[in-house]
Amino acid sequence: MSDIIQLLPDAVANQIAAGEVIQRPASVVKELTENAIDAGATEVKIIIKDAGRTLIQIIDNGSGMSETDARMAFERHATSKIKEANDLFSIRTMGFRGEALASIAAVAHVELNTKTADQELGTRIVIAGSKVETQEPVSCPTGSNFLIKNLFYNVPARRRFLKTNATELRHIITEVQRVALANEQVAFTLIHNDQPLINLQQSNLRQRIIGIIGKQCNAHLLPVNTESSIVNVRGFIGKPQTARRTAGDQYFFVNNRYMRHPYLYKAVMDAYENLIAKDAYPSWFLFFDINPDLIDVNIHPTKTEIKFEDEKLIWKILNAAVRESLGKHNAVPSIDFDTEGQINIPAFTRQSEVKMPEVKFNPDYNPFKTDYSTSINRSKTSGWESLYRDSDDEPDFENLTSFEDEDETPESIVLPSRKNPDYTDEVPTPDQMENPPSSATYFQMKGRFIITPVKSGLMIIDQRRAHERILYEQFLHSIKTNKSTTQQVLFAETLVFNEEECTLLREIKAELSIFGFDLEEINNGEFRINGIPSEFDHVNASRVIENLLEAYKTGEVDPAKEIREQLATIMARNACMKNGETLSAEEMTSLTGKLFRCNMPHFSPTGKPVITIIDNEELDKRFR
């Protein structure tokens, strides 16, 4: 049998390495920016074309490279940071493996102009697909100037898997922000298609955070500064009242290197327990200064994961540091006995006349008498009264074309057998559905379920999911007709976002306008809500927008699928009534009628059952 094992060519090996290190244009920006920081740069300029597909240019004023170093830098595992294996446990630089430039050169056209301070002429190198095409002297300033063109030109499969330009740009902005937060002594500029997106001057940490997140966060930053023999924790955390519904401003840095760490994430969230809502996320910018011998940064190709020698101890120190900051700056609720006007204790002297305290009451009040003739004006108390309009104002669901396959049941739903004695899990199939008679009587249970008799038994409707289905099909109707109903707000609300969120909001602004949102960008990072969908009466529109952005960040919205239908699902979930709403008989009748005019009344937009029926046979069994 002939030998079949052979060494891979360098170009193929570099492409394999590029698959681990260079995942998208943002990876190139991250690696080259970190190299600029390691080279001692005080100014870094990043120029992007078409979200990095066409061009990525990184210009720095660092130490630069000699002719020999410039050529060697593109060899695989060539690095100035590591001399022997023991050096892996004392790393304080950003890059160290020596894979980045070789990986980039394997999948792109690369041009480098670089010069050291003691040289009169610099070096120009042009590489494509790991092959050096040109190397010659050139006149250039001290530092390095990398031009990365046509990323993944020779790996078309990787290029096809890139997301939209807006999505890739958001990833680039995220990487730049992470590096900028950890290096406030360095000025950063980011330009995309000749439009400046980030312009940060040299500053201190607080000013750098304000420059990235926005001026509105300045008054809500609480300093953290704890020193111990193991680790020093410094930085800032946000006040509990500024916690948002979207997770995005949580940053951990170890020796100025950004990291993700779910275990330490829980330490911070534990310190905020009972101070914020369960679905809220505080912001933090926390830096760990620790002996490199006590951590291992060489456990992930992108160097975003770090292992501590004693994670439990770090957890306790971090948790205590955050709690101390919250307590020291009165972020934790406490009883303030010095507040004027809170407690009024009258002062008496010996000459004061003591009077019997007077108690006022209504002698005609009868706790056992209830006035049922008084109705609640739901237009002032409910956030979904648009559901109960006259029939003339209702959308024409009869002629609404279905956007879903009626014969197709969502894969996540398993229809149980009709013989299942656990009737609460019984979901009627479309052929078993029947509309309640117009004269049906409705009862509400626990502020969640609507119960009504039908021919086959007893029907139970989840009112929240029913409302969600109705709103979802209303939004689909807006998509189909490209007509939306917008109600102008009396007092326009201004929302402030960071650059990443602004880029995302600009991307989906056109889709939001179809649903009825009237958003106006008044300044860089500031959006004003002038109008909201008519279905959003008394619904927090800013909360809905934050949830939409969070859905994009967490991957709930898949850009490869129909974006508008996914937005309709999220908006319906946020605008529908909450559990516990008390409905009148007329409202239950209207809700049920609208539900059965939907195309798929038996499932919510996410595939959860809306209706279940306890059949007559089951009722008979229970009374035998």
UniProtKB/TrEMBL annotation:
InterPro entries: DNA_mismatch_repair_CS, DNA_mismatch_repair_MutL, DNA_mismatch_S5_2-like, HATPase_C_sf, MutL/Mlh/PMS, MutL/Mlh/Pms-like, MutL_C, MutL_C_dimsub
Pfam family name, one: DNA_mis_repair
Any single biological process term in GO: mismatch repair
Region feature Disordered, mapped onto this chain: 383-437
Domain MutL C-terminal dimerisation: start-end pairs: 442-583
Sequence ranges of Acidic residues compositional bias: 391-410
Keyword terms of this UniProt record: DNA damage, DNA repair
GO molecular function: ATP binding; ATP hydrolysis activity; ATP-dependent DNA damage sensor activity; mismatched DNA binding
GO cellular component: mismatch repair complex
Chain ranges of the DNA mismatch repair protein S5 domain: 209-327
Superkingdom assignment: Bacteria
Gene3D superfamilies in UniProt: 3.30.230.10, Histidine kinase-like ATPase, C-terminal domain, MutL, C-terminal domain, dimerisation subdomain, MutL, C-terminal domain, regulatory subdomain
The family this protein is said to belong to: Belongs to the DNA mismatch repair MutL/HexB family.
Task performed by this protein: This protein is involved in the repair of mismatches in DNA. It is required for dam-dependent methyl-directed DNA mismatch repair. May act as a 'molecular matchmaker', a protein that promotes the formation of a stable complex between two or more DNA-binding proteins in an ATP-dependent manner without itself being part of a final effector complex.
Name the UniProt record assigns to this protein: DNA mismatch repair protein MutL
Organism: Alkalitalea saponilacus
Highest classification ranks of the organism: Bacteria, Pseudomonadati, Bacteroidota, Bacteroidia, Marinilabiliales
